[in-house]
Structures are given as structure tokens and as C-alpha cells.
């Protein structure tokens, strides 16, 4: 089952991606995406292998951004691919039928394409401007999510849609009111002064939306 809260890794102020992942797991996160850009495949594999061991100890899912081969070799649970990355079909041929594959989308046309490609979930965004991603796609905002979620309903597309991109804790109720399945955060947890409280409060909003839906 796809968790409603995805933590996207970034280096911790006092350490690495692995430090930040351990902090997020200690705070209660159950779904981690290791997102490392501009490093060699060997370095990313090293991080991924260690991250997989850490997540396994917490019984959390680990998704690797961009690299199906590394995801498979490291013992991760899945891979997330951007619109300009390897095709979903080619990735599926590498990782097999049971592996989780997520795909990025920015428009309803992207969502339709992803659904046809057979992804397990969609990362739809960005919600707002974020400094963690280069070459950012057009900002969706709450109204953009509402429109695309409605289009999905009208076209019987039932894939879990995860809102992503610059989402802070204060945004969570507003984002979930658009009808998305869940959301992804990075800095909101990485830089929180009380990560346990932040994760607990986010899950409370996510579960409240589930109860009310």
C-alpha cells in the first residue's frame, strides 16, 4: 500500500542524506525517497544500500529517485522516475513486476500518460516554488490540484496522487482538501525543530482527510 506521507531526502544540517533519513524515521515516517542529484552512480549506490538497511530496520519503504538499477541492487522497495528519465516500461523490465514504480506528472496529460504506462503512484507537482529542484515545472497551487483531481475522476483514473514541491506543514490541510491521496515533504521535516510533533501532526491531517472522504 502506498503511504500517504512521503519524505524526500535532503542532507541534514549536521550530516548527510542518511542522517536526515534516520531522523525522519525516528520521527515516525514510513515512506522514504532517497533523492540524490549530481553524484556518481557508485556514490548513490553506496547511499542507497545503507538507506535500505536503515529503512528495513524501521519496517519503512525506500524508494530511489531516478535509478532503477541502483534501486534493485540496493535492496530498495521501488524507484521514482521523472518525465525525462528512463521510460516506465524499460524500468519495469529491469526491476520486475513486484517493484514499486512512481512517476512524476505536472499536467493532466502527464497523469494520463503515467496511468497508461502502469505506474503505481504519481508524484504531481510542484505545489509551489522549491529550491530543492532545478528546472522546476510550472507551479500548480491548490487550484491546479483540484482541477487535475477532478479530471482524474471524470476519466476513471484512480491512481494515488501524491502532491509534491515546496509543501510545508501549514499547507497540509489545504493540499489534502484538493482531493489528492497524499503528499511529499522534505524541508518541513528535515528542518523542523520538533520532527516527532511535525510528523504526528501531518499524519493526523492525512488520516482526518481519509475519515472525512
Automatic annotation (TrEMBL):
GO terms for biological process: thiamine biosynthetic process; thiamine diphosphate biosynthetic process. It comes from the Bacteria. 2-[(2R,5Z)-2-carboxy-4-methylthiazol-5(2H)-ylidene]ethyl phosphate binds at residues 130-132, 166. Binds 1 Mg(2+) ion per subunit. Its EC number is 2.5.1.3. GO terms for molecular function: magnesium ion binding; thiamine-phosphate diphosphorylase activity. Pathway: Cofactor biosynthesis; thiamine diphosphate biosynthesis; thiamine phosphate from 4-amino-2-methyl-5-diphosphomethylpyrimidine and 4-methyl-5-(2-phosphoethyl)-thiazole: step 1/1. It catalyses: 4-methyl-5-(2-phosphooxyethyl)-thiazole + 4-amino-2-methyl-5-(diphosphooxymethyl)pyrimidine + H(+) = thiamine phosphate + diphosphate; 2-[(2R,5Z)-2-carboxy-4-methylthiazol-5(2H)-ylidene]ethyl phosphate + 4-amino-2-methyl-5-(diphosphooxymethyl)pyrimidine + 2 H(+) = thiamine phosphate + CO2 + diphosphate; 2-(2-carboxy-4-methylthiazol-5-yl)ethyl phosphate + 4-amino-2-methyl-5-(diphosphooxymethyl)pyrimidine + 2 H(+) = thiamine phosphate + CO2 + diphosphate. Residues 8-189 form the Thiamine phosphate synthase/TenI domain. Its cofactor is Mg(2+). Mg(2+) binds at residues 66, 85. 4-amino-2-methyl-5-(diphosphooxymethyl)pyrimidine binds at residues 33-37, 65, 104, 133. Keywords: Magnesium, Metal-binding, Thiamine biosynthesis, Transferase. GO terms for cellular component: cytoplasm. CDD domains: TMP_TenI. InterPro entries: Aldolase_TIM (IPR013785), ThiamineP_synth_sf (IPR036206), ThiamineP_synth_TenI (IPR022998), TMP_synthase (IPR034291). Belongs to the thiamine-phosphate synthase family. HAMAP family: TMP_synthase. Condenses 4-methyl-5-(beta-hydroxyethyl)thiazole monophosphate (THZ-P) and 2-methyl-4-amino-5-hydroxymethyl pyrimidine pyrophosphate (HMP-PP) to form thiamine monophosphate (TMP). This is Thiamine-phosphate synthase. It comes from Mucilaginibacter yixingensis.
Amino acid at each position: 500500500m502506498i503511504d500517504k506521507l512521503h519524505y524526500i531526502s535532503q542532507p541534514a544540517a549536521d550530516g548527510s542524506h542518511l542522517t536526515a533519513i534516520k531522523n525522519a524515521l525516528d520521527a515516525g515516517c514510513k515512506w522514504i525517497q532517497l533523492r540524490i542529484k549530481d553524484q556518481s552512480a557508485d556514490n548513490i549506490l553506496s547511499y542507497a544500500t545503507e538507506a535500505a538497511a536503515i529503512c528495513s530496520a524501521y519496517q519503512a519503504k525506500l524508494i530511489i529517485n531516478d535509478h532503477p538499477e541502483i534501486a534493485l541492487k540496493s535492496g530498495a522497495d521501488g524507484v521514482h522516475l521523472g518525465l525525462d528519465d528512463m521510460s516506465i516500461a524499460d524500468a519495469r523490465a529491469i526491476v520486475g513486476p513486484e517493484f514499486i514504480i512512481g512517476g512524476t506528472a505536472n499536467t493532466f496529460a502527464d497523469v494520463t500518460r503515467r496511468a497508461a504506462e502502469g505506474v503505481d503512484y504519481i508524484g504531481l507537482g510542484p505545489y509551489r516554488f522549491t529550491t530543492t529542484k532545478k528546472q522546476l515545472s510550472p507551479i500548480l497551487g491548490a487550484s491546479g490540484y483540484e482541477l487535475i483531481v477532478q479530471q482524474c475522476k471524470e476519466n476513471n483514473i484512480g491512481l494515488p496522487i501524491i502532491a509534491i514541491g515546496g509543501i510545508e506543514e501549514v499547507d497540509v490541510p489545504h493540499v489534502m482538501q484538493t482531493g489528492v491521496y497524499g503528499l511529499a515533504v522534505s524541508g518541513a521535516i528535515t528542518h523542523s525543530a520538533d520532527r516527532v510533533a511535525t510528523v504526528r501532526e501531518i499524519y493526523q491531517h492525512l488520516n482526518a482527510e481519509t475519515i472525512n472522504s
